[in-house]
Design a protein that fits this description.
The complex is a heterodimer of chains A (about 240) and B (about 80). With about 240 residues, chain A is of the alpha/beta class. Chain A has a single domain, classed as Rossmann fold (3-Layer(aba) Sandwich). Helix content of chain A is about 20%, strand content about 25%. In chain A, the strands form 2 sheets. Chain A has a 9-stranded mixed sheet with strand order 2-1-3-4-11-10-9-6-7, sandwiched between helices. Chain A is globular. Chain B has a single domain, classed as Mth169, Chain: A. Chain B is elongated and about 50 Å long. The termini of chain B are close together. The chains are: A alpha/beta (about 240), B alpha+beta (about 80).
């Protein structure tokens, strides 16, 4: 399976994504510079974390107008798989490829720590290797992860199974005290109606080897590889 | 050359943790009379080649597309010739 990791000025998690897919999972990976206008040949595009364009104006607001984002929209429209992690998620929201918007964390602090997230649906290309309500331990690192969405849109999203991850207790309980950033209904990750686009604040690429404290991020990578029928290196 | 001013504010009903924190700080300085405080953005543009009506139209378009995020923010445009 061939992955493209998009690099914007200010991205800083692209090497982690590249490393996990290449060295841990044995997949083909390329960096894709943000000025690229074609994504031909790729099966999955990753918008990595970081601070694209210095987070000026709003996180992801400027990156959304990079030439590559037109190609990403066309790619996704044709059913291509796109995952936006952290800043990548913020860019997908600004681009309107996923519903809602990000606000500053309710505690006004940049939060960098391991959190628990619960798998709300396994019926997506990104979670089929996990079990329903499985708790994954994956780190977050963000200042704007306070996900907000209008009532009517949230209602539709729930109805369609677009809520993919929610912040939870170690046992999988959804309580306000386990919400790190004020995100609506503890939402940590969502997908598009068709499921081919995933946005999530936690960083699965930072939790893909047990030596780093958790390998739960592999459930997400394994899911998309399973879904696409790719060979997986032994992990 | 005309100038346009764009005021971007959070929509009503959207929590503003930053505003709340600043309000608390003011109260702790003794300004107990402050009942609400919301933080927004102020953007100033210098524009030439269009009349005021057209500038207002174009700046509103800029606001919709980039300067504000219409999901969580409102904006107001003022044009001065």
């Amino acid at each position: 399976m061939r992955f493209g990791v998009v690099v914007f000025p200010g991205s800083n998690c692209e090497q982690d994504c590249y490393y996990v897919l290449d060295s841990v999972l044995g997949q083909r990976v390329d960096y894709v510079w943000h000025e690229e206008t074609s994504l031909r040949g790729y099966d999955c595009i990753i918008l990595p974390g970081g601070f694209s364009y210095g987070d000026y104006l709003r996180s992801g607001a400027i990156a959304h107008f990079s030439p590559v984002m037109k190609a990403v929209a066309d790619f996704a429209d044709k059913g291509g798989y796109v995952i936006g992690i952290c800043n990548g998620f913020q860019i997908l929201l600004e681009a309107g490829l996923l519903p809602g918007a990000m606000m500053r964390n309710s505690g006004l602090k940049f939060i960098c720590k391991f959190v628990n997230i619960r798998v709300e649906t396994t019926n997506t290309p990104w979670t089929n290797a996990a079990y329903h309500r499985q708790v994954l331990r994956i780190p977050i690192a963000h200042n704007e992860g306070n996900y907000q969405v209008p009532d009517d849109v949230l209602f539709e999203m729930k109805d369609r199974g677009q809520i993919v991850f929610r912040y939870c207790s170690p046992e999988g309980g959804i309580f306000p005290e386990y919400n790190p950033n004020g995100s609506r209904e503890n939402i940590a990750g969502i997908c598009s109606r068709e499921g081919n686009i995933l946005g999530m604040m936690p960083h699965p690429e930072r939790a893909s080897e047990s030596i780093l404290g958790s390998s739960d991020g592999l459930y997400i990578w394994r899911s998309i590889l399973n879904h696409c029928g790719a060979d997986i290196a032994s992990v | 050359m005309a100038s346009a001013k764009v005021y971007v504010t959070l929509k009503e009903g959207i929590a503003d943790p930053q505003g709340l924190t600043i309000m608390r700080a003011l109260k702790s300085l003794g300004y107990e009379e402050v009942e609400d405080l919301r933080v927004g953005k102020y953007i100033e543009l210098k524009i030439s080649g269009y009349d005021a009506r057209r500038i207002a139209e174009r700046v509103r378009e800029m606001s919709e597309r980039l300067l504000a995020n219409p999901i969580i923010e409102d904006y107001r445009v003022e044009v001065e010739e």
